[in-house]
User: What shape does this take?
Amino acid sequence: MTASRPRKPGPPVVVRPSFVSQDSSPALLGLSPRKFLEVIVPKCAGDVVRVGRTVLLPIEAAEAALRSLRAEASVTVQEDERGDEQPESVDAVLASVNMKRSA
Assistant: This one.
């Protein structure tokens, strides 16, 4: 048998992902897998693809959900700056972003 000829290394190829999962969310979105599943996935209910335990979302849908969260947060901040009533407890703050405290 003859040995194959060694190849020259080629330039790196940059590939943009088209889907994000709970495994890739820390690198692509900066979210922990738990936050991805609890916050982003419910906002993208129509775009969710499940393969076993892996939850996949198109990257565009996940980015749109993050933008909507940011817009909701900025509206809340603007209301707070106008002198509206401040939340009194941690639970009230979490409720303002549709989250609950876990034990």
Q: What stands out?
A: The CA atoms of residues 24 and 33 lie 8 Å apart. The chain is about 45% helix and 10% strand. The mean pLDDT is 81.
